[in-house]
Amino acid sequence: MTALTLSTAAASGLRADAIVVGVAKGAKGPVVAPGAESVDKAYDGKLASVLETLGASGAEGEATKLPAPSGFKAPVILAVGLGAVPEKDQAYDAEVLRRAAGVAARALAGSKKAAFALPLESAADAGAIAEGALLGAYAFDAYKGTADAKDAKAKKGAKDAKGPLAEAALLGGKPRDKAYKAAVERALAVAEELNRARDLINTPPNDLYPEAFAAVAQAAGKEHGIKVQVLDEKALAKGGYGGLLGVGAGSAAPPRLVKLSYTSSKAKKHLALVGKGITYDSGGISLKPAGHNETMKCDMSGAAAVFAAVVAVARLGLEVNVTGWLALAENMPSGSATRPGDVLRMYSGKTVEVLNTDAEGRLVLADALTKASEDKPDAIVDVATLTGAMVLALGDRTFGIMANDDAFRTSIHEIAEEVGEPSWPMPMPEHLRKGMDSPTADIANMGERMGGGLVAGLFLKEFVGEGITWAHLDIAGPAFHEGAPYGYTPKGGTGSAVRTLVRLAERTAAGDLG
């Protein structure tokens, strides 16, 4: 993990591999951003014109390297685009700084140290830059060649691989200021756990199956003082968890339900988080076609987000009780798999007619939501890569939010936007519930095709305890990024919703959510 430091040193005298500066997009060309004044002065005030000559415009996502001016101990200046210059008397948005720092960290992979001379006017800015640098530096190389590999290409690949940026120094930071130190420490805790979630999402399903995921949770629990309870297939059968057992019936790797409990002696509120953890989703008997199953190791991204959020909350010592539920199963076809037309008796006692075995996430979540409701938390939030319909509706960078309480839905939307996670509130039209009526069971796991993401939310709502505030985050779009990296978002698992859940816990601890 990239190390973080706050520094009051001058950019010219700092020993580093590169100095990172910001450049914005002005009306008449690039504009050097605050924080880089001493660097610009060393170029005789012509840094902007030099960058323009090199083709830089200040657009977001740009990264331009140039030799450092004479007298600098760092050999390279890296200018990263910040987008449009803010309006008069307005500061750069935290998300702009976060993304710029991420771009810089990716561009400097393999470097030992970089000094970030980006606009830094507050502790919040320091936290945003730190978070962006840590998330942007992420790399998943656990399965790349090793130095002792027998295969020559694998050995060379290991030798040539660039590790993440080793250290990021934030220039203009105040190392003795409590607020600055707290902001950086928070960024470190959140980013480390978010990157752990990314690791889990990127891990191949032959290595990350329900039992293995549960073991990771148990190890983290011991490290951070979180109580962890694991229900194996025998306990699930004894307890009547028909959803989890039905989904996992076709796999040689049996399901698990994991409960992580973080408690604070000063807590006044209890938040329950529920994550869908399908460690591989083939679709079951309703088999996914080729082209739709290659990335289905990511179908446990909701559980990864919940796990990471609970650990981050524990590391931050927040004054709120948080319970995480990981509903873990592998959805495979076999002679023992659940068939379309089968009826499952859920943990709640309700029966569900399975019309499509590829609508399995809602089945494992239903059992976990019912179980989570027994503790009577103040609110439940579930997170899941639940429906392709939500991706069609919102694209691959925005998650949908549904809830049984409009004010709670609005709060989560505001929180998500605040931390830089694009989201959108979605309705739950009651008329869509009728489409899930079954002649055989209490409810079917499928309804009308149009509005499928909303139908899934209505299904989940059936399993939330009476009187409990609940929200559902469908992260099917942003959970796994298949394109080129951008900002602080890598290719592969993204850790979507982790920061939203952590901020929700912080707001709950502060009493801001009622």
Model description:
The chain is an alpha/beta fold and 514 residues long. The chain contains 15 helices and 20 strands. It has helices spanning 37-42, 47-53, 94-107, 123-136, 152-160, 178-202, 210-224, 233-239, 242-248, 301-316, 361-373, 388-394, 406-419, 452-461, 498-509, and strands at 3-7, 18-26, 29-32, 63-67, 76-84, 114-117, 167-171, 227-231, 256-262, 270-281, 321-331, 343-345, 351-353, 379-384, 399-403, 423-425, 443-444, 469-474, 480-481, 492-493. The strands form four sheets. The protein has an eight-stranded mixed β-sheet, sandwiched between helices. Strands 1, 2, 3, 4, 5, 6 and 7 form a seven-stranded mixed β-sheet that branches. A hairpin with a 2-residue loop joins strand 2 (18-26) and strand 3. Helix 9 runs antiparallel to helix 11 (361-373), helix 10 packs parallel to helix 15 (498-509) and helix 13 crosses helix 15. The longest helix is centred in the middle third of the chain and has 25 residues, at 178-202. It is elongated. The two termini are 37 Å apart.
